[in-house]
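User: Structure please.
Assistant: Input sequence and predicted structure:
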Amino acid sequence: MNDLMAILIQMAVGLLALQVAALVWFGTRALVALGKLLETVAVSRQDAQETFSVMEARIARLETRCMMVNLGAGEKA
């Protein structure tokens, strides 16, 4: 009976170790995927900020042209 109990305990410990190894493997894969996702979000955010800055500059130039046209100084535009 003691031999059977020892074998069952060894099997339970082995299965527990296998489950822990699987959790670690899946956890590391999930962390790698999350890191790539965060990197993509950071790049997208930077691109959006750069696009916004370019659009602000274009709006400022258009406002300047409109003021010049309204003042009569920019009839060529």
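The mean pLDDT is 91.
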